[in-house]
Amino acid sequence: MSAALQEARACLATGDVPVGAVVVDADGAVLGRGRNEREAAADPTAHAEVLALRAAARNRGEWRLSGCTLVVTLEPCVMCAGATVLSRVERLVFGAWDPRFGAAGSLRDVVRDPRLNHVVEVAGGVGEVECRSLLDDFFALRRGDGSTG
To answer: How many CB atoms lie within 10 A of CB 14?
Structure first.
């Protein structure tokens, strides 16, 4: 999670929502990194998870990421949850829950839907306090109220 948080913090320089992700293989080696780049790239699909999955697939030389774990600071949205399923990631580990957009157990549960061709193992709430704090601080500054929490 520390590598994903490092990616998330790098978002602050571009004004992107601070979400970071890494894909690690079964041995724990990082295959791909990503951070939100929607603002920086003017790309609505430039979510941390999608960018990390793309980088991992390039590094692995194939789109199937069997045996890999996606670690992300915020529960994935529907698009990112779908990309996680389609890439055949074995495990998803995320920090903060997202009751508004989350698709790994909060609002929806795309990654564990048995009707799909692949089901992902999920561990949510890992490092949640630090992940949530980074997001809360970002949005407090954006609102201009200076409050955190």
So the answer is: 14
Secondary element (H or E) of residue 78: helix 78-86
Q: Which residues pair with 15 in a beta bridge?
A: none
Tokens 């951070």 belong to 35
Convert the pLDDT of each residue in 78-115 to its tens digit.
999 999 999 999 999 999 999 999 999 999 999 999 99
Nearest to 122 by CA among 93, 81, 86, 87: 93
Residues catalogued as catalytic: 49
Query: Is this model's pTM higher than 0.90 or not?
Result: yes
3-class SS of residue 23: strand
**Backbone phi, psi, residue 42, to 5°:** 50, 45
Q: Are strands 20-24 and 69-74 parallel, antiparallel or unpaired?
A: antiparallel
pLDDT in tens, 30-58: 999 999 999 999 999 999 999 999 999 99
Q: What is the model's pLDDT at position 146? A: 55
What tokens were used for 25? 């293989």
- In three-state secondary structure terms, 91 is strand
Say how far apart CA 132 and CA 19 lie, in whole Å: 10
**If you count them, how many residues does the chain have?**
149
